Request: fold
Amino acid sequence: QVQLVESGGGLVQAGGSLRLSCAASGRTFNNYAMGWFRQAPGKEREFVAAINWSGGSTYYADSVKGRFTISRANAKNTVYLQMNSLKPEDTAVYYCAAHRRQNPTAAQAMGAIWYDYWGQGTQVTVSS
Reply:
């Protein structure tokens, strides 16, 4: 089992920045690629970003590419999502998740079905 706890969400104006953190406990953190997903009211959960076990490979949704950066600190059992140039359409609950593989392909990294463990989510609200 892996327990994941997100933090860092909040209310920010458009154009602002936030950094989300996801602290993991339980099994060895660097056994897992990690991902961030989000879900806005009335919408499906969607992929945001993912990172392999070492941090050497990252994947992004087109909607956040160039604005968001995913990173990880294995010594701290933590994965981060730096979000810059935020837009009102980024408003959602953000979830971190642990992938069942260390080095997923891009398609596997983007698919929610490949993630075995999920956090409880943190709310991000971007005002216009």
Remarks:
- The chain has a mean pLDDT of 96.
- Helices lie at 106-110.
